[in-house]
Amino acid sequence: MSIRSPRKLITFDWAMKRLLRSKANFEILEGFLSELLGEDILILEILESESNKESRADKFNRVDLKVKNSKGEIIIIEVQFDREFDYLQRMLYGISRVITEHQKEGESYAKLIKVISVNILYFDLGHGTDYVYHGTTSFVGIHDHDTLQLDSRQQTQYGKSQISTLYPEYYLIKVNNFNRIATTSLDEWIYFLKNEEIKDEFKAKGIQKAKESFSLLSMSDEELRAYNRYQDSLRDEASYVETNYYFAKMEGKEEGLIEGKEEGKLEVAERLVAKGMSAEEAAEVAGIDVQLLRQ
After folding, report:
1. Degrees, nearest 5: CA angle 159-140-170
2. What is the DSSP letter of 103?
3. What pLDDT was estimated at residue 60?
4. What pLDDT digit, counting tens, does each position of 133-148 carry?
5. Cβ distance 176 to 194 under 8 Å?
6. Are 102 and 111 in contact (CB under 8 A)?
């Protein structure tokens, strides 16, 4: 195995677990969310969520943050590496659970909290070529094809002008679909999400603060050991996948096994690269030709 120079920046999922929960680093998260949502976001606090705990499965599956902004809205930020065909329904469940958790007993429906779901995905979900998708709720007439609007009294009551702003919003960032140079401030953040690299000329809100805070050189020895253990866990995941293939073969499930195994190896390698491993190391761990990752 070739020896590569140490990474300069930690991966975003690790930053969400350790760094972005600190008020000193709110500026980074505010910058990312401001560029994505197209408005200035001010974070008041990090809220506890069920997946804040660091279980072994959580390392392989997801990392999320739940924050409250200055408008009283709750924003869920989730990083997902593993392929889940029912992920769209899981987003709905997650956002519904947050709404009910924060509804006080006896409160009117008008007090329901607004929730925004931000999903950073390192697998292909659905069929679409874009790398950022935004989902809202609207009501369109089936005869006149007009969009239902709030009346003046409702606008006064809610302090909003559009029905869609009352309902949850969803953002899907399909990181692997981003294959271009960064031409906008949001692109700069997505470039970082894919490459764990922040260029000196990037000017997106909060991104240079991220470059400074995510530097491996600024980590204590204890933090660096924890981060390296996390990276080691990626190799454990690859071994786990390989073991499953082995037992599938032993149980006689050989139809399409060779092709499926090779596809599975490539998927594992791609996920390892997405989590910060070099292409050479990922290819060696997964047992594939490194050229497959460069096509």
Report:
1. 60
2. P
3. 42
4. 999 999 999 999 999 9
5. yes
6. no
Torsion of CA 41, 46, 52, 54, to 10 degrees: 90
Other residues' Cβ atoms within 10 Å of the Cβ of residue 201: 7
Query: How many Å apart are CA 228 and CA 247, to the nearest integer?
Result: 29
Compute the Cα dihedral for 262, 263, 268, 270 and give only its sign: positive
Taken in order 208, 210, 213, 215, the sign of the CA dihedral is negative
- Could you please report the per-residue DSSP string of 174-207? EGGG--S---SHHHHHHHHHHHS---TT--STTH
How many C-beta atoms lie closer than 10 Å to residue 141's C-beta? 9
Which H or E run contains 169? Answer: strand 169-174
The string of pLDDT tens digits covering residues 178-225 is: 988 899 999 999 999 998 889 999 999 999 999 888 876 666 677 777
In the chain, the amino acid numbered 194 is K
Which DSSP state fits 31? H
d(CA 131, CA 10): 22
- Helical residues (DSSP H) of the chain, grouped into ranges: 12-18, 26-37, 56-61, 87-101, 152-158, 185-195, 207-213, 221-250, 257-274, 279-286
User: Per residue in 53-101, pLDDT tens?
Assistant: 444 444 444 558 899 999 999 999 998 877 778 899 999 999 999 999 8
Domains of the chain, by residue range, sit at 12-217, 221-294
Task: Return the SS3 of 65.
Answer: strand
Helix extents (H) in 64-164: 87-101, 152-158
Phi, psi of 144 (to 5 degrees): -90, -10
